[in-house]
């Protein structure tokens, strides 16, 4: 029998990945994952089988890397799971599709706590299950830093995919979901002097909740181009402009509600909330263009117009801040 | 004009990932990738669109991590690309499906040479294009070590997926492709004293070439269970035994051709080639069970029988070597 004065109680030594075999770790992980109604065969075999009733599947992949995309000091395993799922499901929605399933590969250090990995499964489930998305398979490996790679699948239900290239002069530019909240939340965390619990934008940074149903809604409403805002409104609008061969004019007066929602946080940090709204990514809202002669679908609000020409202008001026890039110093 | 006595020639400083923007790196990478006839929409948008004519898609994912699954000293970027693609395509084939497409996420250090990344694209293409498999999308990120995560898709063409659980006593156990060659090749590299160019098993380790067409062939021939041998024959046979609730009896006399093909290399290293054949993974051959009353498809050769009971026996004895595990010390 252990002597509590001499032996540490077992509870005080967190169980790590190195304490478990791959089989044992999978036995903790897999049962926490949702199945999803499109799943014909889930985890446990060489591959999964997902139903694709209309004959084509939407496919996208993203990877989150520790200390590049998240810090363990700020994000729990569940936060990372939610975020990894949400940003991929947003990419599916941005094609006009309904997400159906995802697969995950996880690289993790041997000293990672099992609780973190279990939290990751719970986060994947929390972001997927409400949308009837199954987590159908994946792979685990050891490695020095955590890397979570998610591939997500979607069903177009008979509509054509909405690419970035269909915007035409005269179209309305509109957005669904929030802008700048994730960037504001990151700024609060980076600053370190504010009480994060008093700024709910931090939650948007840690656990983005993209407007997934707005994607198919936009497709059915005739959206001519669409993407999810992952690198900032101006930069992502520029992608539609380039792909479509036209210009996008954005108006800060139409973005005023987004800016106003961030003014308290911005004032406490001495920063300009307009920067967050124009250049902050990772809320994963949907930016789309629609023919002007049709009503916007209910999830979308107008923020500008497509014009002849090229590039993005805000209140008639070409912005200088252009989002960020992974590899540039 | 540069002074060659004072300035190093530009050619002598390899271009690294840090020298390029993400956009520029993608512009080098993406054009090298095959499209594949199932690709309706390839890289460049939020997501790809892949045709799935028969209403269900086979999906699998695996990750290769530097210094866990490969060493840059041994494997070129092209080798890693070939291997990452091949092992995922083998998982698709092991369901009885024809691979159609894959997506890739790549984590890489900023000081990685661009030539390595371009080689990776060429390796993915070399493994995919001959099978009309498209590389349809993915994601790049910086990170300390290289991690290549591939998700592959396949088309069942109307046959039912072949899982691990359908083996029945009386079935024939058969294999397509090689056994033990990859393990022998790794042993040559680990030993370091032999001339690797004189042992073509090294090529199987670096660039496995699984018998992909044997998967659909097995499904059409009525295979009752199937998987690809990634962790060793005995261990993977054990997976079929567990999933199917029966035993697998393997015979070394039936494996003699596989063993004989490795004897020269084994003798030079003073090792037993039987170990490689029984426990070596990563040739990614296909292990399947078939009803005894039907002819085996031409790619398969008989190596044993399914029996009542449990577990795997070799020549009537339960083997002790059981393959390897990622996390156990």
Automatic annotation (TrEMBL), chains A, B:
Tell whether Zinc-finger is among the UniProt keywords: no
Q: Which pathway is recorded for this entry? A: Cofactor biosynthesis; thiamine diphosphate biosynthesis; thiamine diphosphate from thiamine phosphate: step 1/1
Residues reported in the UniProt entry to bind Mg(2+) 2: 62, 91
Which residues of this UniProt protein bind Mg(2+) 1? 62, 139
Residues in domain PurM-like N-terminal?
44-155
Q: Report the residue ranges that make up the PurM-like C-terminal domain in this protein.
A: 168-260
Residues the entry annotates as binding ATP: 138-139, 164, 230
Provide the top EC class: transferase
Q: Which family does the record claim for this protein?
A: Belongs to the thiamine-monophosphate kinase family.
- Family matches, as InterPro entries: PurM-like_C_dom, PurM-like_C_sf, PurM-like_N, PurM-like_N_sf, ThiL-like
Cross-referenced HAMAP family: TMP_kinase
Q: Name one GO biological process term.
A: thiamine biosynthetic process
Tell me which UniProt keywords the record has, alphabetically.
ATP-binding, Kinase, Magnesium, Metal-binding, Nucleotide-binding, Thiamine biosynthesis, Transferase
Protein name (Swiss-Prot/TrEMBL): Thiamine-monophosphate kinase
E.C. numbers? 2.7.4.16
Q: Which reaction does it catalyse?
A: thiamine phosphate + ATP = thiamine diphosphate + ADP
The UniProt annotation places Mg(2+) 4 binding at 46, 60, 91
UniProt function note = Catalyzes the ATP-dependent phosphorylation of thiamine-monophosphate (TMP) to form thiamine-pyrophosphate (TPP), the active form of vitamin B1.
Q: Where exactly are the transmembrane stretches of this chain?
A: none
